[in-house]
Amino acid sequence: YSALDTNPLSLYIMHPFWNTVVKVFPTWLAPNLITFSGFLLVVFNFLLMAHFDPDFYASAPGHKHVPDWVWIVVGILNFIAYTLDGVDGKQARRTNSSTPLGELFDHGLDSWSCVYFVVTVYSIFGRGPSGVSVFVLYLLLWVVLFSFILSHWEKYNTGILFLPWGYDISQVTISFVYIVTAIVGVEAWYEPFLFNFLYRDLFTAMIIGKKFMLKPILTSLCYQN
User: Fold this and answer.
1) Confidence band, pLDDT 50/70/90 cuts, at residue 220
2) Which of 211, 134, 198 is nearest to 166 (CA)?
3) pTM for this one?
């Protein structure tokens, strides 16, 4: 496994944090179990939000909103899942148990998480007048999945996985926004944050921005040639 991470958030904040966290785990703990545990937290968040917001209308005006405690739980679990995703590889190297199968298992679950992450955070805005349509959500899911596939296609051609900046930034931001939503309520996202741009537009722009934070096509073509 060869990866290149140039994200300042990851390099100077998250990696030192993960290096500290991984020392808490006993050496007998399998890295794949850490990977799977983080994935289960992501799925649990999705199912919890699906229970309270099955039709994506809970955040719309005039509808029964998701309880504040749910946003706090989802925010905390999202950050824990992100942390586990960051330490599983460190645990594998720490215990000298890195394998190609472990990498496949890790990134295979990450590919599923792409869907769960986006759909879960979608409940913050939902389908109301200040929300996002389901069709736009569908397109955003394809943007995220395409970015994920593109990164691994680049790795296939170059032998190096150039980790996109958008992942770490989005995970920290999402966890933070969940907690903020519990404090200020979903009503805070109804109003424009700048001129006529709503927070739903910022949500859309952030996800699309993840795609343009990648540079896989040119790099891959250069390595091929």
Assistant:
1) very low
2) 211
3) 0.88
